[in-house]
Amino acid sequence: MNATVTHSQLVRWRTAIFAIFLLSGLGVASWAARVPAIKEALDINREGLGLLLLLGGVASITGISTSSIIMARFGTRRGMLGTLTVFSAGLAVIGVGTDIVHAPWLVGLGLALWGYGGGATDVMMNVEATAIEQQTGRTILPLFHAFFSFGTVIGAGLGIAAISLSLTPFDHLLIVAVGVLVLCVVAIANIPAAEGELVEPDAPKAPFRERLHVALSAWREPRTYVLGIVLLGMSFAEGGANDWLALGVVEGHGVHDPALGAAGLTVFSVSMTAVRVFGGPLVDRFGRVVILRVLAVTAAAGLLLFILSPSVPLLFVGAALWGIGASLGFPLGMSAAADDPAKAAGRVAAAATMGYVAFLAGPPLLGFVSEHIGLLNALYIIVALIVASGFASGAAKPLSPEPRSATAKDA
């Protein structure tokens, strides 16, 4: 990575990627906040809604899987400009399909655009964030992921405001789409060109075939798959909580107040976000491998407490430990994948693909399994994956000496 970036460029670059993480989260939550209204406007049942959600998920995975090709062809700056345009257009098309045309197929097209653009952007913004982390010599990727969480909170809040103002999904999503796109264009303009393209400014650009070969080479490296186990376990832990924690409180433990289910999920989310905000210095102090193993133990213990808890207060303690343990697995896996800047794009894309497949596809599979063995028993699958993630954490050891106090401790 070129080391000539100035301090002011680094500050603008970091701020720009913080903004893109936040705006991505906002765009995701804006769709989620209007799902009930969209279902009602289209007059579809839960099965029909499930098919639309599946389409969005498949498109997201496709975007993640092809992001390395986009980066190899266009670089991350131009690539993100294109994928964020697709992401924003998808939101607008969802609104048009819901309130103007009243056509589920058009909403599906919007979700495909939204999912593809969001998935591809997710990898590229992680590549940029890991490049910034390499420049600063400090662990800050968890903080970038915290900004995504902040964006989801803001998006949910704006969704509540839109509903209270009686805005249709079209009005709401169009405003969000335009706002996200304009702010992202401003953010991308502040990414240093040479750093954003991951090449030296005076170096000749390699042919596209050669760049694509480098980008896809990560899939031939055993370390990629071991890091994938780390990401798979922790992504399953996070995605499983998002989909099943509240229901686990209400139905699994027989707590008849739905508000307590929502409160349990809130405890999980706040715990996870807090560690992402403040956890970076701990990683710098003790190293990735130690932190990942401690967090795997914490997540497994918290989830076991949640499953076996005899009381509501202990349920909340379990949810908090579960959130703390699941907090840093994904960002630290991304950091490890990006240890070699020359191959960062392909390795991050490959690792992210495995993590997001687990995040998007894993929780629905749990739902199927839970129909046969019960919801709380199905959560033991997540415990097993978390344990596997902890055993695989040694793969996160830095590939080469880093300018961090943690390097020696990862040995």
Describe this structure in words.
By secondary structure, this protein is an all-alpha fold. 81% of the residues lie in helices and 0% in strands. The chain has helices spanning 7-33, 35-42, 46-100, 104-136, 141-164, 169-188, 193-196, 208-216, 222-252, 258-278, 280-286, 288-308, 312-326, 329-337, 344-373, 375-392. Helix 9 (222-252) runs antiparallel to helix 14. The longest helix is centred in the first third of the chain and has 55 residues, at 46-100. It is globular and about 60 Å long. Mean pLDDT is 84; it is low at 195-203 and 401-411.
Give the strand content.
under 5%
How many beta-strand runs? 0
Secondary-structure-based class equals mainly alpha
Mean pLDDT: 84
- Major sheet attributes: none
Précis, in short:
This protein is mainly alpha-helical and 411 residues long. Helix content is 81%, strand content 0%.
Helix-strand layout with pairing:
Elements: H1 7-33, H2 35-42, H3 46-100, H4 104-136, H5 141-164, H6 169-188, H7 193-196, H8 208-216, H9 222-252, H10 258-278, H11 280-286, H12 288-308, H13 312-326, H14 329-337, H15 344-373, H16 375-392
Helix pairs in contact: 1-4, 1-5, 1-6, 2-3, 3-4, 3-6, 3-8, 3-15, 4-15, 5-10, 9-10, 9-13, 9-14, 9-15, 9-16, 10-13, 11-12, 12-13, 12-16, 14-15, 15-16
